[in-house]
Amino acid sequence: MNGDQENNVEQAWREEIERRIASIDEGTAKLVPWADVYARLKRRLKR
Prior knowledge:
By secondary structure, this protein is mostly helical. It is built from two helices and no strands. The chain has one domain. It is 79% helix and 0% strand.
């Protein structure tokens, strides 16, 4: 990956992070408790 591509990727991630933070601040994000995520991962790994 060249420097321009790396900058584009970093900018895209920065924008995505800002979008997600705004969604949380606005109360529109669907948040999942860590215990639920952990349980779901454990079930997937047992398959």
